[in-house]
Amino acid sequence: MQASVLAIREVTPEYYMPLGVWVVRQAMTNALKNVKTFASLNSAKTYIQRLTNFDLRKSRLLKTQQTLLYKFLGKI
Questions:
Q1: Between 35 and 1, whose confidence is greater?
Q2: How far apart are alpha carbons 64 and 67 in whole angstroms?
Q3: 5-14, long-range: CB < 8 A, 24+ apart
Q4: Whole-angstrom distance, CA of residue 11 vs CA of residue 14
Q5: How many whole angstroms separate alpha carbon 23 and alpha carbon 29?
Q6: What pLDDT does 13 receive?
Q7: Band of residue 72 on the pLDDT scale cut at 50, 70, 90
Q8: What value, to the nearest 5°, has the Cα angle with vertex 55 and ends 15 and 9?
Q9: Does a structural domain hold residue 25?
Q10: I need a labelling partner for 29 at 20 to 30 A (CA). Which of 8, 23, 36, 59 fits?
Q11: Residue 6 located in a structural domain
């Protein structure tokens, strides 16, 4: 079984005063109460693009290929 999580926090002009880590923790707590699952990465991208102004083409995380765990076994 495999799973990945991509958390995107969009900061808008209404967010005029940074309140620190607490705000991020609260946002993640609220996000975990409303989990969305997608059948594919493309459907998740479509959903994100509809709801935010976030340009997924700028995401370094989405551009990188994950290394499979078994590739590290020979190096231990």
A1: 35
A2: 9
A3: 6/44, 6/61, 6/62, 7/31, 8/48, 8/52, 8/54, 10/52, 10/53, 10/54
A4: 8
A5: 10
A6: 82
A7: low
A8: 35
A9: yes
A10: 59
A11: no
Residue type for 68, please?
A: L
- Residue tagged 């997608």 (tokens): 38
Domain annotation covers residue 3: no
User: DSSP secondary-structure letter at 65?
Assistant: P
Is the pLDDT assigned to residue 76 strictly greater than 60? no
Structural domain of 40 = 21-75
**For the chain, what is the domain count?**
1
Q: Per this entry, what is the length of the chain? A: 76
Q: 57 lies in a domain?
A: yes
Task: Give the pLDDT confidence of 10-65 residue by residue, as tens digits.
Answer: 777 887 777 788 888 888 898 889 888 888 888 988 998 898 888 888 877 777 76
Please report the pLDDT score of residue 75 as a whole number.
57
